[in-house]
Amino acid sequence: MKTSEQVAPETADDSPDLISARSVLKIEADALLLLQQSLDQSFVQAVEIISKAEGRVIVSGMGKNGHIGNKIAATLASTGTPAQFVHPAEASHGDLGMITTDDVVLCLSNSGGTQELSDIIAYTRRFNIPLIAIVGKADSTLGRRADIVLLLPAAPEACPMGLAPTTSTTLTLALGDALAVALLERMGFNADQFQVFHPGGKLGKSLIKVSDLMHTGAAIPLLGQDHLMSDALLEISSKSFGCVGIQDEIRGLIGIITDGDLRRHMGPDLLGKKARDVMTPDPQTISARALAGEALAQMNSTGFNGITCLFVTEGTDILGIISVHDCLRSGVV
What we know:
The protein is α/β, with parallel strands linked by helices. It folds into two domains: 178 residues, Glucose-6-phosphate isomerase like protein, domain 1 (Rossmann fold), CATH 3.40.50.10490; 120 residues, CBS-domain (Roll). 43% of the residues lie in helices and 16% in strands. The strands form three sheets. It has a five-stranded parallel β-sheet, with helices on both faces. A four-stranded mixed β-sheet has the order 6-7-8-9. It starts with 15 loop residues before the first helix and ends with a helix.
């Protein structure tokens, strides 16, 4: 008989919790592969109908599929496809009025027999509103009455009792993501449009462009190369960027005068010198189309002290100026 000292300790890999977790992920991962392999022209037809709709995608589902539906609607809306979630129970008490004949309805139900969806289904049939179903059973009330059926593959729920929606909701969520991305790519939805829908948070800040923050027009500190340094000092002081851009005869940017240039040329004759004699030639510039984060990185890349401003140019044209403080105030990091 083994003593307690002789019994091998349970390793982390043998933990019942880890065994259970890995089993769940394996079941759901296998089901996702089945879903990938089962996609057919019904998916293409669904994308086609949604892309041509003049209204919104109305997503509806009950219980766990209601939570999944909310997420699908949010993902569609944030990637350029107007969408809204309508709760099926609320729909039966007046919210059917949120659905118009310009819309497309996307109903979610693994069984296809969710009683609460019956009024939405009937409403779409009455007013000839396209109905797309994400369903686990084609021969169900929802499956039979939908215009397009996106059929979930037969896969076991990860719940050991086979009752709690786990695998089925994962498949539904993934299929919703697939629809959103396919629509995004079909429409050519780009980062500029994405930023419009995501102005807040870290994601929104990462998409801010130089053109969103730069100062333009009379706010840009500029001076001709033949101006005296006394004029340059006045321009630096009045514009508060700590620098002035120096232009040639055709108003192209040929140099910059910064606080550092002033210190290097400090002397009794400084104010009598011309700007071209003090400027640092060929200053760093950036495009208006660049991300503000790129501008901040460029300013920080020049050493410990860095530079604090960049002129924004397009070819020989000077469009504006952006400072490190503009970036930091806007939350760009």
